[in-house]
């Protein structure tokens, strides 16, 4: 998998963006009609490849030196008959060239071989982590979204967050984005889901983080079946290092499909007697009914340390399980971040909860991958000037 940023004049930009979205393994990182803006955004995102329309180069001579120094590969889209195009491509140290008169055929192969794959490209099936609780309002979605972002950062691998709270899911508003495509759009009228459709439904919400949103209307949830979920999770784990699944309370067919498929179920509880009672019952179903191990079902104590009169040691005793992760109360920060339509970890990275979730992500990554991670190597680049200089047939 690799990301692509497109910098092009308006008319061509829309076509290029559409084409990039159809390239297998490619994910659109962003696009702009302003070269300076493109470079600023790429400085933050470090795309797998930046595709620049030569027209923008002719208008921004002053930026050549800056482009020549960028750490990611740059590909130029230019007319093969324009003699100046080769000079400009050389000046910006472009890695490859797409001919304007044949770009619809050539774009996919040239970008695929030029782009740097996402760092830590997934060489194994990604880890599927379900975030569950028997109780509402305990912090499942807050944990799902922020753990997803923290895992992408800690693992440097793409992460997918799937909103399986299919009636009232709120992952999308929590990341500030009204989704265009949802789980419902993905499955309606079809029993099979393929990699390309899943890819198109994903919404990029942060660096290396993609959301598959819940349906926009509760009645659309009826069309989503357990076998859809299994297919979607399988497809997502092939292209993402981690797949986080936010859920609604309950043992619905869909939840059970996700539980069975997952590598880990983070069961969220809070330090109050009512929640503890239901979480205790849920754990019994997991251990005794489904025969999951304590390694698979892990307890996350959210709002730990709150002065509720229920101590952490009492909770572990009542649940007869150790508490794997403790997340502190974070005052108004989570609500403020949600009201601002931004994930807590992006908005308040130093808040107590953000730091605890980042710590949790690092632990999970170390557990999954060990401390040694493979670093992807850039593929060797082919000389392109000959093609650029070639006269059209
Ligand atoms: N550690 C925390 N400190 C302070 N506020 C928190 C904390 N965790 C969650 N919250 C707040 O609690 C509320 C419920 O959180 P969230 O929506 O994540 O729970 P949920 O379990 O997904 O709820 P639902 O069952 O409705 O989907 C939100 O307003 C959130 O900002
Ligand atoms: Mg929720």
Automatic annotation (TrEMBL):
> Which is one Gene Ontology cellular component term of this protein?
cytosol
Q: Which residues cross the membrane?
A: none
**Which Pfam families does the protein's record reference?**
AAA_31
- Location of the AAA domain: 127-285
Q: Which InterPro entries match?
A: AAA_dom, P-loop_NTPase, ParA/MinD_ATPase
Q: A GO molecular function for this record?
A: ATP binding
Q: Name one GO biological process term.
A: negative regulation of cell division
PANTHER family given for it? Answer: SEPTUM SITE-DETERMINING PROTEIN MIND HOMOLOG, CHLOROPLASTIC-RELATED (PTHR43384), SLR0110 PROTEIN (PTHR43384:SF13)
Name by which UniProt lists this protein: AAA domain-containing protein
Q: Tell me the organism's taxonomic lineage.
A: Bacteria, Bacillati, Bacillota, Clostridia, Eubacteriales
């Amino acid at each position: 998998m690799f990301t692509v940023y497109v910098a092009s004049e308006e008319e061509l930009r829309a076509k290029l963006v559409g084409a990039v979205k159809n390239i297998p393994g490619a994910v659109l990182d962003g696009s702009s009609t302003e070269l300076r803006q493109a470079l600023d955004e790429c400085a933050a995102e470090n795309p797998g490849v930046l595709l620049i329309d030569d027209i923008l180069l002719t208008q921004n001579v002053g930026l050549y030196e800056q482009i020549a120094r960028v750490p990611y590969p740059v590909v130029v889209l230019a007319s093969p008959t324009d003699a100046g195009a080769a000079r400009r491509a050389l000046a910006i140290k472009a890695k490859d060239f797409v001919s304007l008169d044949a770009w619809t055929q050539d774009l996919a192969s040239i970008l695929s071989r030029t782009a740097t794959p996402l760092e830590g490209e997934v060489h194994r099936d990604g880890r599927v982590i379900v975030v569950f609780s028997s109780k509402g309002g305990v912090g499942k979605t807050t944990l799902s979204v922020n753990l997803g972002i923290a895992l992408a950062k800690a693992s440097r691998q793409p992460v997918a967050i799937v909103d399986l709270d299919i009636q009232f899911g709120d992952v999308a508003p929590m990341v500030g984005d009204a989704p265009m495509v949802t789980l419902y759009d993905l499955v309606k009228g079809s029993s099979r889901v393929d990699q390309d459709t899943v890819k198109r439904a994903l919404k990029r919400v942060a660096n290396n983080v993609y959301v598959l949103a819940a349906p926009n209307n509760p009645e659309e949830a009826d069309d989503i079946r357990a076998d859809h979920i299994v297919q979607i999770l399988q497809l997502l784990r092939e292209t993402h290092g981690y797949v986080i699944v936010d859920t609604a309370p309950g043992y619905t067919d869909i939840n059970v499909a996700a539980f069975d498929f997952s590598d880990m179920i983070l069961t969220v509880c809070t330090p109050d007697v009512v929640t503890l009672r239901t979480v205790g019952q849920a754990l019994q179903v997991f251990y005794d009914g489904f025969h999951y191990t304590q390694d698979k079902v892990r307890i996350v104590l959210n709002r730990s340390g709150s002065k509720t009169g229920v101590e952490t040691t009492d909770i572990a005793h009542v649940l007869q399980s150790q508490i794997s992760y403790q997340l502190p109360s974070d005052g108004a920060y989570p609500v403020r971040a949600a009201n601002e339509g931004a994930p807590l970890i992006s908005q308040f990275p130093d808040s107590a909860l953000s730091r605890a979730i980042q710590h949790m992500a690092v632990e999970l990554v170390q557990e999954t991958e060990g401390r040694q991670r493979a670093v992807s190597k850039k593929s060797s680049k082919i000389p392109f000037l000959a093609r650029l200089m070639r006269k059209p047939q």
